[in-house]
Amino acid sequence: MNIALLGYGKMGKAIEEIALQKNHKIVLKVNDENLEELTKENLQRADVAIEFTNPQSAAENILLCFDAGVPVVCGTTGWLGQLDEILQKCKEVNGTFLYASNFSVGVNIFFELNKKLATLMSRQTNYNVSIEEIHHTQKKDAPSGTAITLAEEIIKASKQKNKWILQEGQDKEPTKSSNELLITSKRIDPAAGTHSIKYSSDIDDIEIIHTAHNRKGFAGGALLAAEFIHNKKGIFSMKDVLNF
Question: What string of DSSP letters covers 153-211?
Fold first, then answer.
């Protein structure tokens, strides 16, 4: 495949390394230093675009890919207030779009475990559930998109929780009510990403944890997603890629 990398930071470079090992070709690499190269004409040289930029530019980049007729995989988080607009536009232009808050195969298995555990715990009212996520200090959004996905799935299953609240760092404990799901966000270098779900009671704790050791899992999953949507039309997720 010919691939356009929109965002050529650490993640973009990790994707490039794996893509080249699999004999794909990178035909466009865009970062803050060469934004003028992000044009419809340059995008049309690619079979698929992989977007890892920032919340301020993600939606605009995705729409440009639709305009160019190029399938796009997006891993940028923090912009989902515009997701409905993007999905509607994708349908209107018969485009191809795949968004994931996390492309790691392991994390997507973790998502499924989280949903199953949340269902099992939904009637256990003596347990209180909380989430902790740890990322490197360059992580732009808090909580992480992964933590929000985990929280939303817990809330869907829970009879007690109907919203999540954020605590950044670990020095203070906010007032929380029984309907609030606490997400604690920590920024510690060089953490690639750790997410834990804990159900606590006076009797015991139940906890599931996913710890990333590096970016290879995210990069490899993003490339897997790009390979999946190549020559397809529609809106997809990592569930489709992994056949869950």
Answer: HHHHH-SS--EEEEEESSS------TTEEEEEEEE-TT---EEEEEEE-SS-EEEEEEE
For residue 152, count other CB atoms closer than 10 A to its CB: 12
Q: Which of 13, 29, 89, 139 is catalytic?
A: 139
* Domain(s) of CATH 3.30.360.10: residues in the chain: 105-211
Q: What is the pLDDT along the chain (244 residues), one digit of tens a residue?
A: 999 999 999 899 999 999 999 999 999 999 999 999 999 999 999 999 999 999 999 999 999 999 999 999 999 988 999 999 999 999 999 999 999 989 999 999 999 999 999 999 999 999 999 999 999 988 878 899 899 999 999 999 999 999 999 987 655 555 567 899 999 999 999 888 999 999 999 999 999 999 999 889 999 999 999 999 999 999 999 999 999 8
DSSP 25: E
230 is catalytic: no
2-103+216-242 adopts what CATH topology? Rossmann fold (3.40.50)
Six token digits for residue 127: 């347990």
Delimit the CATH 3.40.50.720 region(s) of the chain.
2-103+216-242
Has 213 been annotated as catalytic?
no
Full-model pTM: 0.82
Catalytic pick among 24, 135, 195, 210: 135
> What CATH number does the domain located at 105-211 have?
3.30.360.10
